[in-house]
């Protein structure tokens, strides 16, 4: 209780101090504007992307570990199966250490992705997994444990150190301003799974501020934050009302996934973009979900691309401490040599994307 009392106090102060400095914001996109934007796009299919040699967002984006050759190699595999979008997490600490260098690396990534015909969804903040982190060399993966080294952004620092608020605002505004008209960016996913890690509504102040900062910059790309859990009602309501286009996560079987779509997602009248799905052992697979999404022109972005340091071939709640390969991978499509986990899946993806 003490932890969350401290968080509540910090959130209240956070909201009070940041509200005083708000500038004029543009309006949320109407459904007409959102649908006009979406109508110009092909059906979008892709993956949440982290290079196989990075354990987390920091290892991907820090100067000493950013690997353009690895990214180029892996995005060529994505192009080869018809994928045309990737969702990629940023991290404010990599920017904080070296703002100019960070933005140069983002531009390099966009050059590579653009060469392969791939648009990018960039994620700014995230409430998932480890809540502490530091710059520099990142930890080695823990054998058989899903996302053992993934880090939140900004994590507990946003609640415990109010001096961070100004820095976060500078980060969001600098990145959005620098790439606000880059057509290789599909959209800005401002906050991944707000309320995760037991935070619930304590994430609301930062979520609100991030949308506010984004609207002040007014990029040409839409702003969104994906709905991911039905019982987070206040967060869900805010996200749906304030997103220019509707993004969401669903790792359920097709019948449950379709109920989500029918029961509340389509009611906004805006385009739908599924930014996370596909957990084989939970019944969310390429063969049963991807065709359903294509039929409704819902963008399909599955979690995971190349098996690597993230260990996302292992299930969330089923660690394999000996590091043995599970018979059925939880996420991911390719091995590090470019061969697929399941050739039939790759054939289906190519068929659906028009590569076959």
- The gross shape turns out to be globular
- For CATH, the homologous superfamily is named as Glycosidases
- Our count of domains comes out at 1
Using the coordinates above, name the CATH class. Answer: Alpha Beta
Summing up helix and strand content along with how strands pair, one would put the structural category as alpha/beta
Give the CATH architecture: Alpha-Beta Barrel
Average pLDDT score: 94
Task: Tell me roughly what share of residues is in helical segments.
Answer: 40-55%
Number of strands: 8
Signal peptide: 1-21
Pfam family, one: Glyco_hydro_2_C
Organism: Chitinophaga horti
Keywords: Signal
Characteristics:
alpha/beta, TIM Barrel, disordered N terminus
Report on the structure:
- The protein has 356 residues and is an alpha/beta fold.
- It has one domain: Glycosidases (TIM Barrel), CATH 3.20.20.
- The chain is built from 13 helices and 8 strands.
- It has an 8-stranded parallel beta sheet with strand order 5-4-3-2-1-8-7-6.
- Helix 9 links the parallel strand 4 and strand 5.
- Helix 12 runs parallel beside helix 13.
In short:
This protein is of the alpha/beta class. 40% of the residues lie in helices and 12% in strands.
SSE layout and pairing:
Elements: H1 2-19, H2 31-39, E1 45-48, H3 57-61, H4 68-80, E2 85-89, H5 92-97, H6 99-115, E3 119-126, H7 157-160, H8 164-178, E4 185-192, H9 204-217, E5 223-224, H10 233-242, E6 246-249, H11 254-265, E7 272-276, H12 286-295, E8 299-303, H13 343-353
Helix pairs in contact: 1-9, 4-6, 8-9, 12-13
């Amino acid at each position: 209780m003490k932890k969350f009392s401290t968080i509540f106090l910090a959130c209240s102060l956070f909201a009070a101090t940041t509200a005083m400095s708000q500038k004029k914001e543009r309006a949320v996109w109407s459904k007409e504007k959102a649908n006009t934007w979406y109508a110009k796009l092909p059906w979008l299919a892709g993956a949440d992307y982290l290079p196989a040699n990075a354990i987390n967002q920091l290892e991907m984006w820090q100067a000493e570990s950013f690997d353009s050759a690895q990214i180029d190699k892996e995005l060529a595999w994505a192009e080869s199966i018809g994928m045309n979008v990737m969702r990629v997490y940023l991290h404010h600490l990599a920017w904080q250490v070296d703002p100019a260098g960070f933005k140069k690396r983002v531009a390099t990534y966009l050059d590579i992705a653009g060469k392969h015909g791939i648009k990018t969804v960039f994620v700014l903040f995230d409430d998932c997994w480890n809540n502490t982190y530091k710059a520099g060399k990142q930890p080695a993966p823990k054998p058989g444990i899903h996302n053992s080294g993934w880090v939140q952004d900004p994590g507990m620092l946003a609640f415990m150190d109010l001096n961070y608020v100004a820095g976060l605002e500078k980060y969001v505004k600098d990145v959005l301003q620098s790439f606000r008209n880059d057509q290789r960016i599909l959209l800005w996913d401002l906050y991944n799974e707000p309320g995760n890690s037991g935070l619930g509504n304590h994430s609301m102040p930062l979520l609100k501020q991030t949308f506010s900062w984004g609207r002040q910059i007014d990029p040409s790309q839409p702003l969104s934050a994906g709905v991911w859990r039905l019982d987070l009602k206040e967060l869900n309501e805010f996200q749906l009302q304030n997103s220019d286009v509707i993004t969401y996560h669903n790792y359920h079987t097709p019948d449950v996934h379709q109920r989500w779509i029918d029961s509340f997602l389509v009611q906004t009248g805006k385009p739908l973009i599924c930014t996370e799905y596909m957990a084989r052992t939970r019944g969310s697979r390429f063969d049963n979900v991807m065709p359903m999404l294509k039929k409704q022109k819902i963008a399909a972005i599955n979690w995971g691309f190349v098996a690597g340091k993230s260990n996302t071939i292992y299930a969330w709640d089923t660690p394999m401490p000996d590091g043995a390969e599970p018979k059925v991978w939880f996420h991911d499509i390719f091995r590090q040599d470019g061969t697929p986990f399941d050739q039939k899946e790759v054939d289906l993806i190519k068929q659906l994307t028009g590569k076959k």
